[in-house]
Amino acid sequence: MTTVAVKPATMAQALGRALRDAMAEDPTVHVMGEDVGALGGVFRITDGLVKEFGEERCTDTPLAEAGILGAAVGMAMYGLRPVVEMQFDAFAYPAFEQLISHVSRMRNRTRGAMPLPITIRVPYGGGIGGVEHHSDSSEAYYVATPGLHVVTPATVEDAYGLLRASIASDDPVVFLEPKRLYWSKAEWNAAAPAAVPGIGKALVRRAGTSATLITYGPSLPVCLEAAEAAREEGWDLEVVDLRSLVPFDEETVIASVRRTGRAVVVHEANGFGGPGAEIAARVTERCFHHLEAPVLRVTGFDIPYPPPMLEKHHLPGVDRILDTVARLQWEN
Amino acid sequence: MTTVAVKPATMAQALGRALRDAMAEDPTVHVMGEDVGALGGVFRITDGLVKEFGEERCTDTPLAEAGILGAAVGMAMYGLRPVVEMQFDAFAYPAFEQLISHVSRMRNRTRGAMPLPITIRVPYGGGIGGVEHHSDSSEAYYVATPGLHVVTPATVEDAYGLLRASIASDDPVVFLEPKRLYWSKAEWNAAAPAAVPGIGKALVRRAGTSATLITYGPSLPVCLEAAEAAREEGWDLEVVDLRSLVPFDEETVIASVRRTGRAVVVHEANGFGGPGAEIAARVTERCFHHLEAPVLRVTGFDIPYPPPMLEKHHLPGVDRILDTVARLQWEN
Amino acid sequence: MTVQELPGAGASYRPTPPPSWRPRTQAAPLLPDPEPHRVLGTPAAEKLDPELMRRCYAELVRGRRYNAQATALTRQGRLAVYPSTVGQEACEVAAALVLAEQDWLFPSYRDTLAAVARGLDPVQALTLLRGDWHTGYDPREHRIAPLSTPLATQLPHAVGLAHAARLRGDDVVALAMVGDGGTSEGDFHEALNFAAVWQAPVVFLVQNNGFAISVPLAKQTAAPTLAHKAVGYGMPGRLVDGNDVAAVHEVLAEAVQRARTGGGPTLVEAITYRIDAHTNADDATRYREDDEVAAWKEHDPVELLERELTARGILDEAGIEAAKESAETMAAALRERMNADPVLDPMDLFAHVYSEQTGRLREQAAMLRAELDAEAEA
Amino acid sequence: MTVQELPGAGASYRPTPPPSWRPRTQAAPLLPDPEPHRVLGTPAAEKLDPELMRRCYAELVRGRRYNAQATALTRQGRLAVYPSTVGQEACEVAAALVLAEQDWLFPSYRDTLAAVARGLDPVQALTLLRGDWHTGYDPREHRIAPLSTPLATQLPHAVGLAHAARLRGDDVVALAMVGDGGTSEGDFHEALNFAAVWQAPVVFLVQNNGFAISVPLAKQTAAPTLAHKAVGYGMPGRLVDGNDVAAVHEVLAEAVQRARTGGGPTLVEAITYRIDAHTNADDATRYREDDEVAAWKEHDPVELLERELTARGILDEAGIEAAKESAETMAAALRERMNADPVLDPMDLFAHVYSEQTGRLREQAAMLRAELDAEAEA
Ligand SMILES: Cc1ncc(C[n+]2csc(CCOP(=O)(O)OP(=O)(O)O)c2C)c(N)n1
Ligand SMILES: Cc1ncc(C[n+]2csc(CCOP(=O)(O)OP(=O)(O)O)c2C)c(N)n1
Ligand SMILES: [Mg+2]
Ligand SMILES: [Mg+2]
Known about the structure:
The complex is a heterotetramer, with two copies of chain A (about 325 residues) and two copies of chain C (about 375 residues). By secondary structure, chain A is α/β, with parallel strands linked by helices. Chain A has helices at about 10-25, 50-55, 65-75, 95-105, 105-110, 140-145, 155-170, 220-235, 250-260, 275-285, 310-315, 320-325; strands spanning about 5-10, 30-35, 60, 80-85, 120-125, 150, 175-180, 185-190, 205, 210-215, 235-240, 245, 265-270, 295-300. Chain A has a seven-stranded mixed sheet with strand order 3-2-4-5-7-6-12, sandwiched between helices. In chain A, helix 3 runs parallel beside helix 4 and helix 9 packs across helix 10 (about 275-285). The longest helix of chain A is centred in the N-terminal third of the chain and has 15 residues, at about 10-25. Chain C is α/β, with parallel strands linked by helices and about 375 residues long. In chain C, about 40% of the residues lie in helices and about 10% in strands. Chain C is built from 13 helices and seven strands. Chain C has helices spanning about 50-75, 90-95, 110-115, 120-125, 125-130, 140, 155-165, 185-200, 245-260, 290-295, 300-310, 315-340, 360-375; strands spanning about 105, 175-180, 200-210, 210, 215, 235-240, 265-270. In chain C, helix 1 (about 50-75) packs across helix 2 (about 90-95), helix 1 runs antiparallel to helix 11 and helix 7 runs parallel beside helix 8. Chain C starts with about 50 loop residues before the first helix and ends with a helix. The interface between C and D is large, with 81 and 81 residues. One thiamine diphosphate sits at the interface of chains D and B.
């Protein structure tokens, strides 16, 4: 392998590389799903894997998501480490019984005797002009299911590092890939990509003092942009990237909010019953006397995901974030 | 029919009566599910319906939940009003794709041209000594799905009234029946049972001044008991029964919390990402300056539902509620 | 009790079925045709109905043109995505023409052509794929269910609708379309089982076009044919050459007739081929050989019919020209109408989630309204 | 191009399959036996292996006794619920005995007896039903998957495990059990399809006991037999008298052998009957007639075997007594051990949700710990 120095790579490339490296290092890692073979997946994340590892390690399955996940459960029961691709967010729903009733519970059911180290990759979220059922932010369902880890990268580096960590985890991980960041680019050392030691640590992506934006995945770039724009209004916003919704790194978030005294949670998923509710509730519980204003949320509306021509109105954008920051009772 | 005066009835009887009356009044109402016919359902809620209305109106289906709900979608497309029984909470999971991708979205998808007046009855929650998969509190999944109403009675009267209102609704309703209240009894006028005019109104079940317990379904009796016990500690607790999680009657809840200045949300569902998160977040947003303490939650732990012999430790009980009320910063 | 006391021990035990066992039907249902059923180019073509065939021909030509136009619109950014049915027009057209006015069509995401051949305005059929609202028509007005993107999920809907219609005493047949890949989904299984148990008036048309995106049939099933799946539900299964519009129409017409007359559901597998890529966004060279595509082009549904009809004198030069012209007119109108930007009202986002807006939705609608007003002012 | 220019117009079109079409196998797989396969009471019984049959007999007697004991324990409040297999012991026992040491059993919620017949401690098998922890044994130690309550969901697990074992070069067959009702679930379909496509070494045993709780088979399927479902997946289907332990063992042994030698999966339907109610909580009189139950009691699996074996001199009075005695010993031990209250540690609630406790779980565990301590003090 030729040494590739730090140069721009896309999140899609980093994800593909993570799969490749995991498969190369550990023969029990198997990639499976619809179109992951010759096609390399509809987003080309698995491109090249079947050539390098053969059809037995990178398998085009029949078109049946419950069957895919159910078969992966059996494979994991036998000691393999399946990495399952769900083609789009909404097409993971047929596998929910397997996910909730088995994947999330097998370890607990067997008092630890039968862990299921399965990684379920789910491209999620909107902003790509996808027609119905191709842009859901379905994280609320996963977050509400004990026994699952829920991980989502927002940067090229994390795409690699968190996916490696997820595959290495002995627990089932729902790995949510922000579709619209697949083609986002960043400088990245492909010669020595860094794994993340474990999942569950949030990162302060931008330090600030006025208020904290708490976010993850596809909304991180939007929040960073909002933070830049906020400078004009005289606000110095801190931005925390959760990186995993479960485990939820309360300590990092709470330290930030206690510092700034104000917080806004930003995500694409519907607001009502969405992950932001948990974050807001918990942050409030632990920062009550530090808060100058209630924790607010900027989220997708409480509607089914809109058609492409209307999605811009639905997605949390810079303006809506700034409008919300403005509502943080600055006059107090 | 002989006139039956006010006398004790169980919630199960009231639910059965609601189905019967709805079917008698409206020939488009069809009951369907596993074992709803000759057996009358495993909880006997549909007892007698097949005798009165025939197999075409009360249908034992094949054992396939996605098929049941999917067929109900088609029936509703043709103008019927199906009432589907899911045998237990966890056995509704196979139907989640139909529920999320179709039931909740058909009206929106067709700009109102094709509403789906389907009622999905789901016995839910624990406390009945049920083995694995028979005691899930799955409401978080429904609550996070726009397009669904999520209704749950806590009293015999509401069991009748809310089920009638749900069947009458032109929107799909997930009707969550608290299993362990099936055999709860109350005085009830079976001769003139009262329908509830519409869904979406919470009720203050007990007036109080010290703090508000916000709850629903199986936890209402526990909260009322806790409120009684709290008198000894010198607290006069208000108890709000939500009755529907969607729509969430913010006004009633917020009026109460603004009055009392303190609130605890109580439910059996797992805390993390559960409905209580939304309630706490929203109440805080709208009552921030009225709150003497953060809104706290008493919920099931963030674990898969425990085996019968341990469930008592998991379920919110009077003591845990009182301990939590004690944490509402009374010293302030 | 010892074994000596048992009545009729040993040899006297009769090898008969256990008490309440009986096969559900007297015999296995008809096994599907060993070869795909054909009409064109066979002696059976003698009996073709000229009127019907001319209609089929006109629709095939129109369908081919529609496909070309839709694909062109993707290149012009006028469609977000288009799953073409080039090569599959015979199935699409036959499915549409075989239904009576009151019947229902349940298309998959690929089947806009079937909807158009049924009479739906092409612009309405393409509304979803344009990035406009999810459904461009009133399903009840046209008796065409919304295009179903989640695969096979429309099949139980078709069963439920057909069942409901029969319960109400209405003469309605539902025809549901699904791909070869879609047959692997649990919903396919549950739908066919419900249909058979309820003897619902439904016809299931599987277009076996050889691929589910990149996945070839051999990785999808080990069954002799997809039509063989009918056996396990106790319904008839038929296998037909999906590029032979006369054969598809004939097989579907029989199935529709069976359903209409209380004979229950039928599973039809039509062997066809997707000439274009999965959608305009797909790169089919990654998973199949040009040779295969070329061979199938020799078995083109439009040409097969044109050849037969001209050979039989049912179609002449003028008829061909007329069909082409009508197709061009449709295409030109479609092109023109699709070139105008549709006007969507953002407030529609909140209008149809529930029959009545919840408080939360009213609040969100107000917020968007304010943002839009502010934008308009700026 | 006009039709005149087309090569070989009209009659010269050959009615052959389209280019890339071929049936996936040369012929349809074997259609299932028209009558349930039988050995006992037929000439085939001549060739019974006495050793195996004596083992079967002992297990049947033990199984019957186990069922009685477990039901008694529900009445004493020692089991939360018990789904009995009285009448189905031949299936349960044959499924257990047919497997080699390294093979895996995937039981449904009803199949504790199969696990016990495989050698699992009955107390461990009943742990779930006792209200104790969800699984009472280490699945890997016994190669018995946890009892699966969500119907048919264990079938894809069996496929995945068998597939994984084959990928690793291990000689492992998975036998998965499911009820007649469970065959209607989407997971049944997806599992059988995966198994056939992957040619996984799996055997699917459907115990058709006539009912899914109250729903009779006629409302579950319209198929001639459930074994016919095999056709649609391209795998062999077999029909067997589920009360004839020799026949069930023979059919399963063939299927296991086929799987072991690379021949892929088999679907076996065993016709049997649930003599008891669905569980102790069920009232079977609501949905079936006593006559039917009585007729099936005449076709009792234990008696059928006992009669055959005594008639053939394979079993004598002493053998019968010995079996009974061993069953009584097992029952007495079970009764006694189940009469002691199991000791559960509430802190286990938090111990196995993840490989490492999350902060939130640590906090909740601390809360419960404090509550328990306070309780202990009081
Ligand atoms: C439940 C579900 N899973 C996955 C997809 C993504 N997807 C869209 S089309 C397609 C292939 C469909 O193949 P087939 O059923 O043969 O229909 P065809 O595209 O050939 O018409 C896939 C996997 C989907 N739409 N729905
Ligand atoms: C997915 C799912 N749906 C419903 C149930 C509830 N349930 C438990 S047993 C049963 C009937 C099962 O019938 P069958 O498959 O014939 O097995 P049997 O009980 O006869 O052994 C039902 C409906 C369940 N356990 N899982
Ligand atoms: Mg296809
Ligand atoms: Mg059964």
